Amino acid sequence: MRRTSTLLLIALLGTACQPSDDTGTTASGTSETETGHDGDNSITEAEPEPEPEPEPEPTTTTGDPTGSGTADDTESPTTDGATDTSDDGFCGDGVVQEGEGCDDGVFDPNGPCLPGCNANVCGDGHVYTGVEDCDAGQQNGAYGGSCSETCTGTGIPSCGDGILQEEYEACEEGQTNGDGLLCNECQFDDFRYIFLSSVKVNGAMETNLSVPDSATGIYRADAICNVLAYAAELPGTYYAWLSDNNNHDESDAADRIKAAGSSAVYVMPGVGKVADNWDDLLSNGPSEPIVWTEKSDEVMPVPASVWTNTSPQGLSLGENACNNWTSTQGSGWAAATVENLNWTTQGLDLCDELLHLYCIQGQD
Question: Which residues of the chain have pLDDT under 50?
C-alpha cells in the first residue's frame, strides 16, 4: 500500500515538471501546431521568426526651416555670411550661374559687375571706371552728344569734326558753296539774292512780261523782278533798286526792301558774294559788278546801264525819273554796272531807252 502511494506521487510530480507554452502543448508532449506524424513518427518543427531590419541613420536637413528640404552635404556661402545648401546657387555666390552675365560677389555701378549680376558693358549707361571714358546709354553716338558709340570722349559726331552729317549739317566749317558763302557753324551764312534783270525796260517800266496792268511806276518794277525770280525758281520776294520822287512811305528803295539791320550776305545767283550784309552794301557798294542775272547768266558787254534814281543809301535822289517811272518821255536817272559806290549813280538816260533793273531779295 505504501509502495502504491509512492508511485502515484512520482507520476504526479513528473507531470507537473512537463514544459508548457502558448502553442498549446499537452501534457503528453504533443503540440497543436505540429503537422502530424509521418511514417517514422517524426515531428516537423516550426520555422524561426525573421530578425528585424536595422533602423536607418537619421539625416540632417538644412536650408529649409520646415524640415521638408533635402539633405545636401555641400554648403554654399551667402552674401551675408550664411550658407546656402541648394544646388542652384544664387546671384552673389561668386559663381556665374546660367542666366547671369557675371558674378564676382562684389556689385559696383562703376565696376565690371553691376547689381543683379549684369556685366557692365558700353551702352548700358554705367561708366566702367578705367575702361570707359563715358557712357550715355542709348545716346551714345548722338550728334552733338557727350559720348561716342564706343564709350570714348573722341569721335563724337559734331559740327567741326570734318565729316558732313547731312541729317544735321548743311556744310562743314570752312567750306564755301557755289554762291561764295562761308560755312559758319555747319550752316552756310544766311543770304539774300541780288541780280541784274535779264530783260530791259523803258522809263515806263514796259515789258512783254505778264505783269498786272494795275501796277505802275516802282510797283511795276517790283512786279517785273518777282516774275523773273519766280521763273528762275529763286526763293523770296524781290524789289527793284528804284526810287521815285513821290515822297510817300515807299518812294525810297530801302523802305520797300526793309533790310535795315539784316546780317544776311548778298550774293548773285550761282556766282558769289557781293556784300557781307545790308550795311556793307550801303556803305561800300558791291564788291564786284552786279552783272549776273536771275538765270545765272552774265550780261555782256559791261558796264551795262540800269534805271535807279537811288542813292548808295537806298534813298531817292530826287532826279529826273521819267514822270515817276510812268512815261517814255523825258529822262531818268541811271547807273552803270560797276563795283563800289558808283554802282547806283551815274547820270541821265532818255526814258524811251531800254535799260536793266537791279532786283534785290527783301526780308521775308
Answer: 1-46, 58-86
Query: Can you give the length of the chain in residues?
Result: 364
The Cα 214–Cα 236 span in angstroms is 22
Q: Parse the chain into domains and list their residue ranges.
A: 159-188, 190-361
pLDDT in tens, 213-230: 889 999 999 999 999 999
7 HSE (CA, 13 A, CB side): 4
β-strand partners of 228: none
- pLDDT tens, 112-130? 999 999 999 999 999 999 9
Whether omega for the bond prior to residue 301 falls within 30 degrees of 0, making it cis, is yes
Is 357 buried (19+), middle (13-18) or exposed (0-12) by CB count in 10 A?
buried
Whole-angstrom distance between the N-terminal and C-terminal Cα of the chain? 168
Q: What is the pLDDT of residue 36?
A: 40
What DSSP assignment string belongs to 259-290?
-TT---EEEETTTEEEESSHHHHHHH--SS--
Class of domain 190-361: alpha beta
